[in-house]
Amino acid sequence: MLDAKNTWDNTRARAALRSMFDAAVASADPFRVLAAHLPNKPRGRCVVVGAGKASAAMAAALEAAWPDVALEGVVVTRDGHAAPTRHVRIMEASHPVPDQRSEAAARAIMQAVQGLGPDDLVVALVSGGGSSLLALPAPGLTLDDKRTVGRQLLRSGATITEMNIVRRYLSAIKGGRLAQAASPAQVLTLVISDVPGDDPSVIASGPTVAPSGTAEDAISIVQRYRLDLSPAVHRVLEQAVLDQKEHKPQPDPRNRVVMIATPLMALQAAADKARQLGLAPLILGDALEGESQVAGILLGGVARSVHLHGLPVRPPAVLLSGGETTVTIRAGESAGKGGRNTEFLLSCAHFLGGEKGIWGLAGDSDGIDGTEDAAGAIFAPDTLARAAQAGYMAEPYLRNHDSYTFFKAVGDLVMTGPTLTNVNDIRLLLIA
């Protein structure tokens, strides 16, 4: 008779998946990780600026860690992601497409770092989502120009890294320009990463970091995805190419960048929780990219191999992965409700076809998968059968990029609300 400790049913598997996901998110809680990375307190002023889905919580954590420092400044976060602060002004703006508040916030942040001296310290709190929240158009562009570019990038299938390379060359604050405006003050950038590879020049398009991708890279991305951009945008990109050839950006030794939370750290926290639950964890990578539906099939195939052959890990086990997949809406396709995590998960469930002994959860660590109100979703061996009984077949919902509607119909959405942090997507496949 099988030992009860080794038996898995829907209730136990679902609870295990959710506890691992929650552990991953908790590992990036600013109140848990920020204080350990602070420097000596400054002799002069301390100006706090920042942008991203976690920036308000990071500001609140900084105030808690330095209650005796006269902090000042402003940060911008996504609507619904604010946190209470005493000294740092919190602004909210639109994500993923910028609005007028995004431009106003960028101007307020640039103003906050004016007139500083060498004894002053700027603490920049940067996290994912900051690109659309800091929308200060480069000279010659309007906010509508930036919105148009943003919308086309989101629909193109471009990776988050490619999107941010283009964005930073259309901005008057990104690509290190915020740090330049703060000179000669010291700048400490505390980063919660949400991008593959944890490149600080990519996260929120690097407002305090010299760009790694070139202006020529940005033009190549525009051409690769056949973006239909205005003449003004093309002129700005072409001028950026000329400027870079004449003046190559140099890093400032007075500026430091510290990663305080990353996708890999979150996956490691989930793996620790898996071991406590009696599961063998296997981290497949923190930087997986590609089409969500294709990734669902590929990782579903790995899960099937574990189930049937015990390779590449013996069950009971959990496969963990991070990174950001993409959902490409092609010409002529309809776009329903859904994000990259629910689309990945529906593709995986459809591929597995209700195979016994495999469960999955995929969710965005910020609590919002795309533009909907769910972090992601969960599937069980009986999900497809329950959906079919209610009249919902997986294939048409995949075809119409309507995965949110599918999982909502069967009650399998994962709802967390805004988590006030962001270390990208967490994907978990549990094999009993």
UniProtKB/TrEMBL annotation:
Gene3D superfamilies in UniProt: Glycerate kinase, MOFRL-like N-terminal domain, MOFRL domain
Residue intervals passing through the bilayer: none
Enzyme superclass (EC): oxidoreductase
PANTHER family, sorted: GLYCERATE KINASE
The entry's keywords: ATP-binding, Kinase, Nucleotide-binding, Oxidoreductase, Pyruvate, Transferase
Top-level taxon: Bacteria
InterPro entries reported for this sequence: GK-like_C_sf (IPR037035), GK_N_sf (IPR038614), MOFRL (IPR007835), MOFRL_assoc_dom (IPR025286), MOFRL_protein (IPR039760)
Protein name: DUF4147 domain-containing protein
SUPFAM superfamilies with a match to the protein in the record: GckA/TtuD-like
EC number(s) per entry: 1.1.1.81
Residue ranges of domain MOFRL in the record: 318-425
One Pfam family linked to the record: MOFRL
Gene Ontology CC terms, in alphabetical order: cytoplasm
Domain MOFRL-associated: 17-238
GO molecular function: ATP binding; glycerate kinase activity; hydroxypyruvate reductase [NAD(P)H] activity
